[in-house]
Amino acid sequence: MKCHGFTLIETVVVLVLLAMCATATTPVFIAWRVRDEVDARANALLGTLAYARNEAIRRKVRITVCRIDAARNCLASGASCPSGFTDWSCGWAVVAEDPGVQRLLRAQPALDDVAIVSTLTAMTFSPPAGQAIGVLRSFDFAPRAASAAMRGNVWRRCIRIAAAGRARISDGACGAAS
Fold it and tell me: Measured at the alpha carbon of residue 95, what is the angle toward residues 92 and 99, in degrees to the nearest 5?
């Protein structure tokens, strides 16, 4: 009687090959995940800025995008996030400044893996045209715990906001901290 199947040696060879493939692809997967997190965070802020500008035009009130704490309250200039960082990684909120009352319209949760650096602590859009108030309106996005291989411009994103309130995203650093 002839048996069909795999020998122990054949099985071990296949397992070794699978282990080698997994070892070779792990750094690529980690790099992909980090780049995806940076892109997703940049696109989330870009969408929030567009939403805030449109709401300022539609509601005819000042709309502010600000860094927030765990209770979704706007943080003061220089205040740290609950994680201890002083950048925008603690999340942000869109707040409508109705006469005498501030209403939360939208909030984005914290993500400490991506550093979001800007000299701004809040961004205000004013009616009737949704113009941005403030200077040096830009944001730098980069992986927080980047290895030496992840420190180049290919890993970074930049959002710049024009005086008219329109935001654009681009690859690379924009020098928001300088």
Answer: 160
